[in-house]
Design a protein that fits this description.
alpha+beta; 21 helices; six-stranded antiparallel beta sheet; globular; five-stranded antiparallel beta sheet; 652 residues
Length: 652
Amino acid sequence: MVRHQMLCIVAPVSAGQADQVARDLDPTRTTPLGDDCRALCETLGFVHFACLAVLPPIDGRPSLLLELAVDPGLGPDAVVDALVRKGTHLLCRLFDLPADPEALRSWLSRHLSPADGGYIGVRDRSVSQIRAEAKLFVAVRTAVASARTGLLRQQEPPTSQRLAHAARGVVQHPDHAFATTPSPRSFWRSTDLSTPLRVALILLKLVLPALLVAMLLAGVLATIGSTAIAAGSLVVGTKTVLGPPVFLSFDRYADWALGYVIVSLVVLYAVTAALRAGVIPIASGFLVAAVALFGFLVLPWVLPGSGGYLDKLWHFGGAIGILSAWGVGVLLYVAGVVLGALVLAAAALLVVPPHLGPPVLLPVTAALLAAEALVLDALLGWLAHGEPARHVLALEALGQAGPRAHTAVLLLLTLFLVIAAVVLRVVWVGLSRAGKRLDGFNKVTPHETPAVQQTHPSIEACEASLATKVGHMISVTDVRSRLHGTALRLLMRFIMFLGESWFTEARLGNAEGIKFGHWHLIDGGRRLIFCSNFDGEFGAYLDEFILGASDGINLTWRWTELRTRDPAAEGQPGVTRARRFPPTRWFAFGGCKHEQWFKAYARDSMVPHLFRYEAYNHSNQDITRATRLRDALAAPSPDLLQDDRIMRAAES
C-alpha cells in the first residue's frame, strides 16, 4: 500500500538524550554519527529519503523522529527486520536503548507509524530503478550527441532513424539491459486505463462500500423489526395489533424479506471477520457480500415463472421498509425506555422526601415506569393500526393498479425531483451568500499575522544545507480536539486514495515537484506531523500549494492549531504565540489563500532536521523523462513513430 512507503518512527526520549543527539548531528556539516546514519541508509538500499529530528516536548518529554520513504511493496515488518539486521547498534544509540535485537524489533514495531495520509509524486519506482534510469538517460544523450557529430562530419543528415539507432545501441550494454522491458506500473498507472473507466472504478470503490453498509443496516433494522413482531405475536396473542394481521398484509413477499434478513446477518458476520483479518480478506469480504446481497435481490425475480421483476422488487422493498420501520420503532422504544427511566428516577428522587428513604422511592419509581409503559404501548398501537398498515395497503393498491396509475406515479416523482432541484439550488445560493458574509469576519489584521520572513536560524541553516539538493520540511501542529482528529483521519485517507487513483503522474492538482508528502497523527491523535520531500525552494513549494492544491491543504490543516510549546532541544525554535490555521470557508476554501498568514503558520510549525539522507538528487521531471525514454526504448517493433518517440524523450 502507498501508506507503507512513507513511515515514521516516533518515540519519546529524555531531554538529555535529545540534546545529545542534537549535538552529535549537525545538518550544516559532516559528523561521525551522520556518516553512520548515511551508511545505514545506503546499506539498506531501499530508502529514498530519510531524516532525523527532535520533536517538541509533549507530556514533558521530547520525541525523536526517524522519517523513512522506502521502495513500493515493502511492508512495515520487512522494514523493521532490515533495520534490526543492519542497524541495531546505531538505532539503540540514537534512541538510548539496550543493544538487544529482539527487544529493538518489538520496540520499533510499537513505535512505527505508517502514513495516515500522503501523496507520492513519482510512484512505482524503486531507488535502484531511478538510479539506473538516470544513468541510462545520460548514456543515451551521450550516444546521440556522438552519433550526431559523426554524421555531420560525414556530411550526412542526422535523421531520427539514425540517431534512434544509436540510442538503441546503448541498451546492448549489460548495465542498461533492463531497458529492454518497460518500467513497472501499478494498476492505477496503467496506460490502458481510460479516464471514463478510471472514474467508474473510483466511484465503484467509493460507492460500493457505502451501498453495502446501507443494505446491511436495512437488514439489521429489518431483523429487529421482524423479531419484535414475532415476539409480540407470541406474547400478547394472535388477535392483537402485533399479531398475524400485520404479516398477512404483505404475506406474498414477507418470506423473501425475512430471507434477506438472514442473508444480511450472515454477510454482516463475514464482513466483521474480514475487518479483523486484514486487507485482502476485507476486499474479498466486501466482494462476497456485494455479490450475495445483489444476487439475493435479483436472481429470485428473473427466474422463469417468478412473475414480473419490477412488481416483485417493489413488494420486496415494501416488506423491507415495513420491517425496518418496526426496527427503528423498537430502537426508539428502547432508547425512550432508558431515557424515561433515567428521567423518572431523577424525578422520583426529587419528589420523595429524603427522610422517607428507599422504601418509598422504589414504589414511586415503579408507578412512574408503569405510566410510561402505558404511553408507549398506546404509541405502538397507533403505529400498528396507523402508518405502517396504511403503508402496506398503499403498496398493495399500487401493485394491483393499471398502467395509468404507474404513469401518474412516475410523473409525480419527476415533478418532485424538479421541485427538489429548484429548492436545493435556492438553498445552495443562500448558503453561498451567507458563507461570503461570514468570510468577512475572517479578514487578516496585521497583529494576527507576523511577517513570514521571521524564520528561526536553525530552520534557515537546514534550508541552506539543502540549497542544491531535494527540499525538505517537517511541520508539527496540534489537533484541535479528538473529534477533529477523527475527521482529519478520514479526510486524509480519502485524499490519499485520490492521490493513488487519480493524481498518478507526479502532479497533485496543479502542484508539481512533490516527491513524498505524508501526514501522521501521533501522541494518541493529539498532534499532526507533516513531512515532505520536494523539488525547489520552500517558498516556491508553498506557492505551489496555494495556487495548485489549496483545497487539499485546507481540508487537512484546518483541523489543527499552534499551541505554545518549548523548544525540542537547545538552539531550536519553540512557539511563543498560540493561533489557529487561517480561517476556511465551507471547509476547503480560503485558508491558505491568506498567503502571509498561511506561510507564517507553516514556518512557525516547522522543526529543523538533524540529519538528512537522499538516495538521488533528481527532480520529478528528470525521473519522469528517464522513465519515458526507457519505455520508448523497450518498444517491441521499432518504426518511424517509435524513433520519433525515442528522440523526443532523449532531447526533452
